[in-house]
Design brief:
Blueprint (H helix, E strand, L loop, with lengths): L1 H9 L1 H69 L5 H11 L1 H4 L6 E8 L3 H10 L15 E9 L17 H13 L3 E2 L16 E9 L8 H7 E10 H12 L3 H4 E7 L8 E4 L13 E7 L2 E9 L4 H29 L5 H18 L3 H9 L9 H18 L3 E9 L2 H7 L1 H18 L5 E6 L2 E6 L5 H16 L2 E3 L2 E3 L2 E9 L6 H17 L5 E3 L3
Parallel strand pairs: 15-16
Antiparallel strand pairs: 1-2, 1-5, 3-4, 4-5, 6-7, 6-9, 8-9, 10-12, 10-15, 11-12, 13-14
Helix pairs in contact: 2-10, 10-11, 14-15, 15-16
């Protein structure tokens, strides 16, 4: 007994040493797992935020393109008639319904360009139209005048612009002359609009579209400068424009981020045009993102800063806390069990089984997380991040082998009424059905992605002829338009498709997507031709 007791006393330190070592190792492993989990979760959150930021910026770009298209339509009105009457222009503007569909747009105006020797005749003609107090502002003698002749809606705000000479203000002159020289719609730098008062002052921009004599669009720079007869322009209040966009497209996200819009390619303080009213401190999970938005004839710089309220940041903290508590708990349990190891081999075996089960469980869902980071949770299709990656690889291969590739941009029509009438569950079922149909009609080498909402993008790494693309697009359209049965209801949508080809329409993935997107809008605007190729 004495010998046994002596032996036990000699080994007594093991009863404390083994659990102590396990405790230290367990805490270290818990810390390591927490660090790995946080990094993994942050990366997922960063990717999600990157995608949402890209979508937000792309939406702003599309809205500005829509504004430019409207302005080109007005330019066509003035180019297509010898004389647009004031009443005719008023009726045309009323038909556009800009105040309802395009908040932020203050109106549309016509600027006439004329020499000093025609000034008196010009003033007399405008006054004869009923504008008895019309005068060119500011007063003074100069060789050339550019006066605002028409502006709608003709409310008290816009009446401030009537007679204003655009050529006397540097920012407006710069944009107007660029529009003249380049023969396209150009967005000005940041300005204070004439329509502003001393209340709720916002930064603004003006979109200019040039007008040439005889309605032609001259080819050479010299011809464009000689043939210029004026401009149509659109004043835009940036605050109203961006706020309406966020409330319509991103009502929840707009509360969780700080959004800033700058004119130009750098986020300079003096060029700040918009800052959202997001409250709270910036998130510590990841830094702000800077994106460039291509607007008609210009560049905007967009900064997006996630706030503490941004959802993924809270999830990272919650999951990390759960792992910490779970890790500490398991470590303590294993330490106690290890102390009993000297007394019971069975208890040690049970502890090892528990630890193995916990490790298998952690291996936490890694494949599931990795899948979710690259696929759309609703349809199971590749998401934008995976699509961009595959498109980049396909583009590199196409460049290396001097072969064409194509991107198709699909936007569903008549989808919103389904959500409104039958509910979002029915709309989700329609999107899943369409996703399966698209996958079934494409090759294994092709990729179909759900861009977001009711938009899909298809990558074709190679094709033989342009006609093959058009045939495929119409086959996809026919499959999409086949009614979907949901809960006994036959629900039907249509689709507008834009096609961009490499290298004809762009040499980068983003450019091809943008050109396909623009072609889709052309198809949407012309129901008789629902499939449209990008213009070269």
């Amino acid at each position: 007994m004495a010998a046994i007791k002596e032996g036990f006393l000699k080994r007594k330190w093991l009863v404390w040493a083994l659990p102590g070592c396990i405790l230290l190792i367990g805490l270290a492993m818990t810390w390591l797992q927490v660090a790995m989990l946080q990094e993994r979760e942050r990366e997922v959150a960063r990717q999600e935020f990157t995608i949402r930021a890209a979508e937000l910026v792309a939406g702003l770009e599309r809205r500005m393109v829509n504004h430019a298209q409207i302005l080109l339509g007005v330019a066509g009105l003035f180019s297509g008639e010898n004389q647009v009457t004031r009443d005719g222009f008023q009726r045309y503007y009323a038909g556009l319904r800009l105040g309802i569909t395009y908040p932020g747009v203050q109106g549309i105006g016509y600027v006439e360009l004329f020499s000093a020797d025609k000034k008196e005749r010009h003033v007399a003609e405008v006054r004869a139209q009923g504008m008895v107090e019309y005068a060119i502002r500011p007063a003074g003698e100069r060789d050339v005048y550019s006066s605002v002749v028409y502006v709608e809606p003709f409310n008290w705000r816009n009446q401030r612009a009537l007679g204003f000479d655009m050529l006397l203000e540097p920012i407006r002159v710069k944009a107007a002359m660029r529009a003249r020289d380049e023969g396209r719609v150009v967005t000005s730098d940041k300005v204070v609009l004439l329509q502003e008062t001393d209340q709720d002052v916002q930064a603004g921009v003006l979109l200019f579209a040039p007008l040439y004599r005889q309605g032609d669009w001259p080819q050479s720079l010299e011809e464009r400068r000689t043939a210029l007869r004026g401009w149509v322009y659109m004043p835009l209040r940036i605050g109203d424009f961006v706020n309406n966009y966020l409330q319509q497209e991103y009502p929840e996200l707009s509360k969780q981020i700080l959004l800033e819009v700058y004119g130009g390619e750098e986020p300079r303080a003096e060029e700040l045009m918009y800052r959202s009213a997001g409250e709270g401190a910036a998130s510590t999970q990841f830094a702000s993102m800077v994106r460039r938005a291509v607007v008609p004839g210009g560049i905007w710089t967009i900064t997006l800063t996630p706030l503490a309220a941004y959802g993924p940041g809270r999830q990272v903290d919650e999951r990390s806390a759960a792992v910490v508590f779970a890790g500490i708990f398991l470590t303590v349990v294993l330490s106690l069990l290890s102390r009993l190891l000297l007394l019971s081999h069975l208890q040690v075996e049970a502890a090892l089984q528990d630890a193995t089960a916990a490790h298998v469980k952690m291996v936490e869902k890694e494949e599931e997380i990795r899948y979710m980071a690259h696929h759309d949770p609703l349809t199971g299709l590749p998401n934008r991040a995976l699509f961009i990656d595959r498109a980049g690889q396909a583009l590199a291969l196409a460049w290396r082998n001097s072969q064409p590739m194509a991107i198709l941009f699909l936007d569903l029509d008549r989808f919103k009424p389904i959500n409104d009438q039958y509910g979002h569950d029915a709309g989700d079922a329609v999107l899943r059905t369409i996703g399966k149909r698209l996958q079934s009609m494409l090759r294994a080498s092709d990729t179909v992605c759900r861009q977001g909402g009711d938009e899909f993008v298809v990558l074709l790494p190679d094709f033989k002829q342009r006609e093959d693309l058009e045939n495929l697009a119409y086959k996809l359209r026919a499959a999409i338009e086949d009614p979907c049965e949901v809960d006994g209801n036959l629900l039907q949508v249509s689709v507008s498709i834009g096609i961009a080809m490499y290298p004809e329409h762009g040499e980068s993935v983003e450019m091809l997507i943008q050109r396909a997107d623009a072609a889709m809008y052309q198809a949407k605007a012309n129901p008789a031709k629902p499939v449209c190729f990008a213009s070269t």
